[in-house]
Design a protein that fits this description.
Length: 114
């Protein structure tokens, strides 16, 4: 299993970013996918989850209405569209898949600052 995130960067408050996670090594369309984040000095927290077919999506309360998780099973990729970003969204964002065991990507840094 390999998960490779991309799309992070520095953005001003109120801005937007789109994260991508390219998956390989397993039957992507058969598994739910998740995005987590970890801010400095804090525990890793769940941001959003999407079912294998994309029909069920769950969000942390702190991002509901601002973030959208989606997936393209033809491209083996899961996305996280982040709008109205706030400084408190600053964190390393990780892609997650539970395929037998828990698998993580290397993470992508998102910094929201003016």
């Amino acid at each position: 299993v390999q998960l490779v995130e991309s799309g992070g960067g520095l953005v001003q408050p109120g801005g937007s970013l789109r994260l991508s996670c390219a998956a390989s090594g397993f039957r992507f369309s058969g598994y739910a996918m998740s995005w987590y984040r970890q801010a400095p000095g804090k525990e890793r927290e769940l941001v959003a989850q999407i079912s294998n077919g994309g029909g069920i999506r769950n969000y942390a309360h702190s991002v509901k209405g601002r973030f959208t998780i989606s997936r393209d099973n033809g491209k083996n990729t899961v996305y996280l569209e982040m709008n109205s970003l706030k400084p408190e969204d600053t964190a390393v964002y990780y892609c997650n898949a539970v395929v037998g065991t828990t698998h993580w990507g290397q993470g992508t840094q998102v910094t929201v600052s003016s």
